[in-house]
Write a structure and sequence with these properties.
Length: 111
Amino acid sequence: MDEFRHLLDKVRAQEEKLLSERVEEIKWIRWRDYIALFITLSLAFIVRLISFYLFDRGIVRRLNRLTETVKNWREKKEIDFPEKKKDDAIGLLEQEIEQTAQHFKNQSKIG
């Protein structure tokens, strides 16, 4: 009976050791996942800030400049077209507005 108890104690000790190793492994995995989640959220926030800045700089400012150009054209003020044109949709709109303004300017000189 003593031998059986001793064997049972060894089995319990091995099970406790195995259980504690597994619990530590689970803690490590959880900690690793929290760090990965924090890094991912931080990167997503930084990318969002960059995209907001680029959208504001690239789209909104260009649209505001186009709006100002059309307003100056309507009020018959001097129109200042930007030198640099991009080949995107807003750039094509800038080119069309400039060409239309030049067309009407030439028409008013002829007529």
